Amino acid sequence: MKKKNSITVAILVALLAATIAMPGCSRDPNIRKRKYLQSAQQYFDKGQNSEAMIQYMNALQVDPQYAEAHYGLAQVNLRLGAWTTAFTELSRTIELQPDNLNAQLDLGNLQLAAHDYKAAMERAELVSAKDLNQVGAYVLKANVHAALGEKEASLEAMGKAIALAPDRSELYSNLGGLQMSAGKTTDAEASFRKAIELRPGSSLPVLALAGFYQAQGRMVEAEQQYQHAVQVETKDLAPRLALTRFYMQQGRRDEAEQLTRETAALKDVAQAKTVLVDFYAGLGETDKALEAAALLYGTDGQDPLVKEAYVRMLLAKQRFDEAARINEEILKADSKNVNALVTKGQIYNNTGRPADSIHVLETALAREPNNALGHYVLGVSANLTGDAVRAEKEWREAARLRSNLVEAQQALAGLALQRGDLDLLASASEELVKAKPDSPDGYVLRALVAANHKQPAKVEGDLQKAIAIAPQNAVGYTKLGVWRVDQKNYPAAEKLFEQALALDANAAEALRGLVGIYADIQKNRTKALSRVLRQIERSPSNSGYYLILAMLQNQIQDAKSAEASLQKALELDHQNAEALTLLAQLQSASGRPEQAVRSYEALIRDHPKNVNALVTLGTLEQSRGNWQRAKSLYEQALGVSPDYPPAANNLAYLLLERGGNLDVALSLAQTARRAMPDSTSASDTLAWAYYQKGIYAPAVQLLEECVRKAPGNPNYHYHLGLALQKQNDKPKARQHLERVLKIDPKYPEAQRVQQALTELGS
Length: 762
Known about the structure:
This protein is 78% helix and 0% strand. The chain has 44 helices and no strands. The chain is elongated, with a radius of gyration of 34 Å.
């Protein structure tokens, strides 16, 4: 019997081997790609977007020309809001399969959303020419006409679409929206009701009618329809979330919270569990959100959605060890879980391990290259390691993949502010307004762009909007206060800054605004000091407030008190870079270079990429005669920022003075001069490099410019005198060299000056 079993197994193995080897089975690329496509479509139908995306991409690895897979990938990206990637995939689909009319219409709708009305209309015309009965083509035409303000043409095109498909509910909803835009509210209401009649079991047309009533200010009827939508589809989250938003917009927080609790208690609706967590998190109430997430985890801790929600809130509260432990539970169950890998990268970033984060995120993105959040977090990792170029690249990729990813747009906005890049700031602010219309952030940034473009009406409108949509948020009042200062309306600015501080005791920009009014405008530093001290009483743990206090004390020549305030600021936050910088400056100015060096070293220890600190410490060490260390610090600064002008200038001068490589010095000096064309220091360094290279004419030209701008600087006269001596212009050379000793009889190079004068003769 045993022998018989062995023979049977051997036969089965042989049969399997033969099957695998047979052409036309699983090794056939056509079969493999179709299997991937079928699997992807099944995942897509279940709403499992990441899995669907991976399978579509697997199909494309087998056959990069597989139009159906490109179209499927486009559909996933459309669902995720990754418009740019969807656009690319739709374009590729049409290139491979021009008669895919659905892809043509999808692309046309994206072009409409991007305000490319001509291209969208051409797409609609192309589709209707191929198929006169293609309803979507007329809908697209109608929407393009509406966007162009061509109301009657819009309604006519929509009428043709309905004539072709009179039983499609969504067409009447679209018609209702167009009629609203045309001011035909009675017709619009009838259309919305017709949509409901045709699809009585769906909440979508009911929500459209509710939105219509809300837009008309008919709030009682709007609420009735939102509630009706909830009853129509009791297990659908969309109507419940819409009613919650309605309550919040009406200022009915308690009802919104109660409805969210009821939603979270829904059985058999997986996504409902975490809505209460998201509700509190969206309001910025992270303590309540964490409490809700912890309660969920305690009762249903094996659900991955629950675990992910809990990890999100632990991260928000900076409880990184706990977040890491639970995230590892998710990865233990599925080591390829891309969301958990991205979260792991976030945890590494927040615990001082950005290099490890990069490795984890590259693994995640190799599995899911279109994961926008993964690219954003990778940008943060790169930024933390000092790779600003890669950081920007990853943030731009994240925004390209998902333009409504708030974090990526905020990062790009920060980059734009840093560089003064108004174009980047404009695009980022517009995307923030679209992605979070109920947040003040996008409006505030857009107002800044308008201010730079001298558009006061737009500035005013956006800042007032920021306050209107978030009256409990200090940022709108603060920024409007800054705008009032620009308008020289100081009483209004003062009132706005006080409103901001009443809402947020830690609104540092508002306090700085008040201090600026009192100290700089009213010239009343006593009043400014008093106001800062009063705010410190309200918020005694704010390191930034002690820094503001120190700045004021320094202005009134109370260096001792200023230093004490800075020490307090650093006690509260040892990484306060501004406080450390000012402390080092005070120590240096009071003749305590050793203490200043220690302060700069502490600053660099906490902020190793702070190029200004590196250069300042280098200058201090150079003044103490520590040439080698100064050179090392300048080189370190250039390692962080290769074109940083002060570092290039100082290193060049050091090399010229200490017998370094003249070609390197000249290159550095040219870099500094290009970046700082108005700097006499950079001009002098470049001239001195030319002098030492034996190139005297441009040296003289630069030094004459320096002397004109700073006639009291003995170095410029000294260098110019030597350069003129080389050109054999003895009278002018003598004039400038004698000027050196008149300005500073104890000039360090006085002996060399006398020698040059002797060489010039009488």
